[in-house]
Amino acid sequence: MRHVADHSSLRSYTSHRLIISCLSLSTVLAAAWLAFPETVAATDKLTVYSGRAERLIKPVFDAFTAKTGIHIDLLSSGATELVNRLKVEGARSPADLLITNDAGSLEVARTAGLFRPIHAPEIDQAIPPQFRAADNSWVGLSGRFWIVVYNTTMVKPGQIKSILELANPDWKDKIAVPNAGSEYLQAGVSVIRASIGDERTKPFLQGLRDNAGTQVYQKTSQIVEAVAKGQVALGVVNHYYVYRHLAAQPTAPLTIVMPDQEDGGIGAIMNVAGIGILKHSPRADSAKLLVEFLASPTGQKLFTELDKEYPLHPEVKADPALIDRKSFRAALVPLTKLAELREPTMQLIEQVGLR
To answer: Please, what are the domains in the chain?
Structure first.
């Protein structure tokens, strides 16, 4: 089984995508407008608190607005900040929905009683149960994998096969990592802890800290850029950041490893972006229309085309540039456990001294 993306095919694909990018967005949005069924909206506006970058989610919301006439007001911030804000605002919150890029944050919101269950057969059929809360109080929308990206002039294919190998002394001063506040880091370490235990996870984090040195970044895109420039040999990031970088810079010497696929390996670390309807929203019917749209093949194709994320709808194909989802396995840690694991994970990260 081949787990390293072919660099030449990535370049060829991304060069082509760069040429047609202006046409692609219009085509995708037009298809979305035509494919989603006509609906009668209960209100003409929804407010969404978004833990996702506006430039990545707004085109998807615009397609929903074009079809339904329901305008969406976005308030964007970090997922943790938004959950804390919702707790303070309570029933006075203007928000109708919360969308984030981390299942752990969604589960924290659920356990805090912020969401209402969503009863919709369409969602049950569209999104497999492992990607949503048991009562549908939050629903996953797109998948992302924590992968190793490397500079092809500095690392040979097959030289690294596991995220755990990033702690080896051979990679001293050669890796870039997210900072301790990163939700991606916290979720990734939580899965590692649940898979191999704290006794093995702690020395891994210590090695990661020592090997990264000062190469600690607030933004994942900065890690990809550092690897592309040869400032470091490799880094750990969500997969789509690499494909987005190559779409803009097709000649960048980048490729990825879908790690931990060997016998006994933990499997690729997966997380999902997702959404929930807030308990006190007076516009629940319109909010439900939005969730149904995002979970439908139309919405799933938008995430795939525009953001290079893996669709969760089983009938929607991923972008052909991505590693075939059927060719690798994911870690078995349930997404619903990420909230439960978060606090002890953050304590361990702090003990180790990751910045």
So the answer is: 20-143+270-326 (3.40.190.10), 145-269+329-352 (3.40.190.10)
